[in-house]
Amino acid sequence: MGVxxxxxxxxxxxxxxxxxxxxxxxxxxxxxxxxxxxFKATSNxxxxxxxxxxxxxxxxxxxxxxxxxxxxxxxxxxxxxSNLTYMKLSFIPAVVMIVPVVLVMVQLNLRYASVQLRxxxxxxxxxxxGAGFDVMRNRLDLDCGSGxxxxxxxxxxxxxxxxxxxxxxxxxxxxxxTVSWGxxxxxxxxxxxxxxxxxxxxxxxxxxxxxxFNPGSPVVPADGPIESVEIAxxxxxxxxxxxxxxxxxSFLVISFAFGLCLKFIFKVE
Length: 269
Description:
Blueprint: H1 2-11, H2 20-42, H3 45-64, H4 69-112, E1 114-115, E2 122-129, E3 140-144, E4 148-150, E5 155-157, E6 162-169, E7 173-181, E8 184-192, E9 202-204, H5 208-213, E10 226-232, E11 234-235, E12 237-240, E13 243-246, H6 247-265
Antiparallel strand pairs: 1-11, 2-6, 2-10, 3-7, 4-6, 5-6, 7-8, 9-10, 12-13
Helix pairs in contact: 2-4, 2-6, 3-4
């Protein structure tokens, strides 16, 4: 996953200066084209074309024999069977496409899920601890490095096993904060850069899911009381089709729209 992160960093290098939407459109268009190629390469195009031809013929039957309920029901049954056949033919190509799409989405989420802080802006730091750690009695501290200020004292919430602080970015750049307890500590980066770079907003215990869906993120000690540390950045949104959309919806709309256009150009069933 580290190699893939480096590949995406190089791929998005031209957009690193702050053109977030341009980078998202570029990756979405490229993904749409690759997915269409994979679908065509792994599917039986001739069989799919024949199924679609039969479905069109059955719809014509519905119009021609709309007065005959028996023929209408028979045509509907044949349409249903043909649709199931088409879905069966599409299953393997869909499975092949899922893996690269998920990998792309993981990388996009690192870069487009959160808006980095600007000087003077604040964010909430949420530290979740295990059930055996009493947040009211045990020590838990937040230390801010240069470029970051503590904007509020810690608020302890026993019902959620959580302690929260508010931090403020004092200087642009990527800085660090440290959450410490009696026997250890964990560092978290605080992002205040203008560059389009991966933003790790959550650190959790070392698990396979963390490695897959949050590759390269900081981790908290496996034997420590902390379950996770989260910095709540503002979500990034894009103006698309007159709407304010998250990166995920923007990616899906752009990639599917481009793939649909190429589908007719390259005659993919």
